């Protein structure tokens, strides 16, 4: 039970820090999606 409460505390702290730091949120969410579309379009253009 102690492990679950400790994990919840760390998750809460991590989310709080991420919301304060908008660059980390951008790098963690938007950048992977952008790179996925970029690489997908590059691979489809090279196969033509």
From TrEMBL:
Transmembrane segment boundaries: 21-42
Superkingdom field: Bacteria
Keywords: Membrane, Transmembrane, Transmembrane helix
Name of the featured protein: ABC transporter permease
Organism: Microbispora maris
């Amino acid at each position: 039970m102690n492990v679950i409460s400790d994990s919840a505390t760390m998750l809460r702290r991590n989310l709080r820090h991420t919301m304060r730091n908008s660059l980390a949120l951008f790098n963690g969410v938007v950048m992977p999606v952008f790179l996925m579309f970029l690489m997908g379009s590059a691979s489809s253009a090279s196969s033509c």
